[in-house]
Amino acid sequence: MTVFNLGSINIDLVYRVAHFPAPGETIGSNGFSRGLGGKGANQSIAVARAGGAVRHIGMIHPDERWALDEMARYGVDTGAIAMGEVPSGHAVIYVDDAGENTIVLFAGANRAIEPAHLDAALAGAKPGDWLILQNETNLGADAARLARRKGMKVAYSAAPFDAKQALEMLPLVDLIAVNAGEAAQLAHALGCEVAQIDVPQLLVTKGAEGASYRADGITHDHPVFRVTPVDTTGAGDTFLGYFIAALDAGLGPQPALERASAAAAIQITRAGAAKAIPALAEVNALLAAD
Q: Does the pTM exceed 0.85?
């Protein structure tokens, strides 16, 4: 099957800092890098690195054509990425000495996608294909409705978290992916406990406490692989991309969680987002050694 991803493409501007600046504080950086990122691009690359077939739907400015070449190099089908005059999305990322990050996003072209472009991009989708969505593009609800009419399965990464958008998406999706903080916010917006969030499939990543996946009334848990983090940017995207690719390949929930956990563990031991996502052979090697 094919995984379609209506997703953001950002240019990541990454600054290494000893600590995050306090309000009014000016600090120097210990390093700088510029590379490909965005939740959508990271997720698509993760699906491709996991061995899945993935077609990315998005938009960039022609000045960042190199981003398409980079995605294609990782195995992503970029034929549904449009060019427009709106500046490409970008992210300013601070990474501290503990590997934690703070991020400021500029949406840009990610929120300028036209409905006609979305329709054309999903024209070849088949029943059983996956569609991945997140909150960094426009047309998320429209895409979910269109996918449902086509018999596709819809996975929604509710980040960056927005309660109003999450509540709108809830009845339109098959799987919601959130971290522990986002799960708590979603439960609060619904007036219920996390365990009572009414969605067919719920995937919750919990940082050092691992991850859980609930479907058909059964919850599966998996601990983290213990590693020394270098940069946690994109870890959740790596996890989701690998998890969806594993489900699409026919793996059950427990081995899918295991594979996604291993991929995210490897990813955070490297600097960067997209470029740090491991290949499936690396993930299998970690699992074999564990």
A: yes
Query: What's the burial of 249, exposed, middle or buried (CB within 10 Å: 0-12/13-18/19+)?
Result: middle
237 catalytically annotated = yes
In total, the chain counts a number of residues equal to 290
Q: How many other CB atoms sit within 10 Å of the CB of residue 84?
A: 16
CA dihedral 29, 238, 167, 119 (to 10 degrees): 110
- How confident is the model over 279-284, as a mean pLDDT? 98
The tally of domains found in the chain comes to 1
- Domain assignment of residue 124, yes or no: yes
Range of the domain at 129: 2-9+37-87+111-289
Report CA-CA distances (Å) from 148 to 131, 151, 174, 192.
Answer: 10, 5, 10, 26
| Choice among 216, 237, 248, 290 that is catalytic | 237
Q: With cut-offs at 50, 70 and 90, classify the pLDDT of residue 161.
A: very high
12, burial (CB in 10 Å: exposed 0-12, middle 13-18, buried 19+): buried
